[in-house]
Amino acid sequence: MHRAILLVLLFVAGCTQAPPAKAPPRSAVGMAPLGPCPPSSWKPEAPPPTASAKTSMVLLAVGEWARFGRQITFYSSNAPPRTEQLGVKERDAPERIADYWASVDKPGRSGLTDIPWSAAFISWDIESAGVPRDLFCPDQSHTIYVERMVTRAARPGAVFIPRRPTERAPEVGDLICAARDGSGTTLDNLNRGAGHCDIVVEIRPGEVHAIGGNVGDSVNRSVFPLDGGGFLSPISARPVFTVIENRLP
Predict the structure, then answer these.
(1) Do the domain assignments include residue 42?
(2) Domain range holding 235?
(3) Quick one: angle between helices 118-128 and 142-152, nearest 10?
């Protein structure tokens, strides 16, 4: 009898045990560490627009979007993306895209180079906002600079904190990053695959607006749906794997 009661108690305890916590994001497994951020001689073309680095990131992104003709694309959970206004294409602004490439030490590239430049755009924006390289390391690949953010987040003073989309409702200044071309990149599988990030510039009821480069061959404002709690709704055309919290002042 006592044995039966003990088994019942053990069964109940097992059923009520709290599930294990998710492991924190980590650097790419099975790959050589990235090491410290390499030095660069590149300098921004002008001082940041404001004393706030976060605000400067947003203003710079909006300014480049206006320069490229204010292209805008709407995303939904269950329909293809819809572009309502076309902007200036990369082939018509090669010199400006060359400026983005220069920020990741690729001075020979431009809008006429058939290489994705979206990560160069984000790098140009954050560097131009005055963020030092010990807090953000520019790169021509989104998933490489995100991996460095994951590593940096474990140390004091980090300003970019990668979060899972279910853990962070986007705020202005955050980055929204998605896997691309079927790379399967997630925070638990940082495989250095293809990705794309946009900078959040505005939050509206039920939607978040974010600006990135090389979307439809232009600097594009993307509109993503939010659920009732302010979190990103799943988007089939843009498999978001992280919302990066921006703690810059």
Answers:
(1) no
(2) 47-246
(3) 50
Look at residues 37, 34, 44, 48 and name the one whose alpha carbon lies nearest to residue 137. Answer: 37
Per-residue three-class SS string for 4-52: HHHHHHHHHHHHHCCCCCCCCCCCCCCCCCCCCCCCCCCCCCCCCCCCC
The 10s digit of each residue's pLDDT in 122-152 is 999 999 999 999 999 999 999 999 999 999 9
* Residues facing 47 on adjacent strands: none
Q: Pairing between strand 218-225 and 207-215? A: antiparallel
Can you tell me the distance from the alpha carbon of 22 to that of 186, in angstroms, rounded to the nearest whole number? 13
What is the Cα–Cα distance from 97 to 218, expressed in whole angstroms? 10
Domain total of the chain: 1
Q: Which residues pair with 106 in a beta bridge?
A: none
77: DSSP letter: S
Q: How confident is the model over 66-115, as pLDDT tens digits?
A: 999 999 999 998 899 999 999 999 999 999 999 999 999 999 999 999 99
Q: Is residue 59 part of a domain?
A: yes
Dihedral sign (CA 194, 198, 203, 206): negative
Which residue stretches of the chain are H helix? 2-16, 53-67, 94-102, 118-128, 142-152
State which amino acid sits at residue 161. I
d(CA 244, CA 180): 17
